[in-house]
Amino acid sequence: MKESEYRNSDQEEKEAKNTEGTRKENLEEKKTEKDIEQKEDQKLEEYGQMTLDDNAGKRKIHLLTIIGEIEGHENLSSNSKATKYDHILPKLAEIEDDDSVEGLLVLLNTSGGDVDAGLAIAEMIASLSIPTVSLVLGGSHSIGVPLAVCTSYSFIVPTGTMMIHPVRMTGMVIGASQTYEYFEMIQDRILSFVSDHAKIAYDQLKRLMLNTEMLTRDLGTVLVGEETVKEGLIDEVGGIKDALKKLYELMETASS
Questions:
Q1: Catalytic annotation, residues
Q2: DSSP letter string over 111-155?
Q3: Per the domain annotation, does 52 fall within a domain?
Q4: Is residue 56 part of a domain?
Q5: Which domain holds residue 10?
């Protein structure tokens, strides 16, 4: 075989190896992308959370959904939609520690739930150093009210509702003055948090909580869409487009 033929054969062999190597790299990349997608899908299905980073500016936003009932120390039935605070608190700590996350978007459709768990989540979100925006979809009732107002800016859809009512307790309740004083203390914690993070005064919020004219079998007030803005609970009526736009603005201001 001539020397030129040896060279051609050697060159073809190198090209074949390079082609094979490129093919393997492409397969590995596709496998990695697929693994990432599967993890995101699993995280969304199990925790109602995902990362939004396909926007034009490649800004990394964490999406947190709070749906159903806020679960406390006791597990709810498997038939109930629930938000587990023991899943959310560690994630919020991780978000605060991750420099790549620039903003947090919170979507709410909750009937309320455990007071301590709800306040714990609200306090964590309120103490984050990154811009945060909430959007009430459907409803954000009871302990969902502090969760709706704990962000840097809040939105509610036109048909969204918020119910403000006194603290309720299930199970056996001892009919003593200390029990009612304890109820008052819990209510004060909620009223103080909401009035500190919204544009509504403590006394006005308490009047809405103890209103006897709206609910026939209970105390409290139900506010719909624009009413929540007029009362000073929510900043603005809007949808997902408005919430994301505001979050981008807040992130831009924070980074400048």
A1: 142, 165
A2: EEE-HHHHHHHHHHHHT-SS-EEEEEEEEE-TTHHHHHHSSSEEE
A3: no
A4: no
A5: 1-47
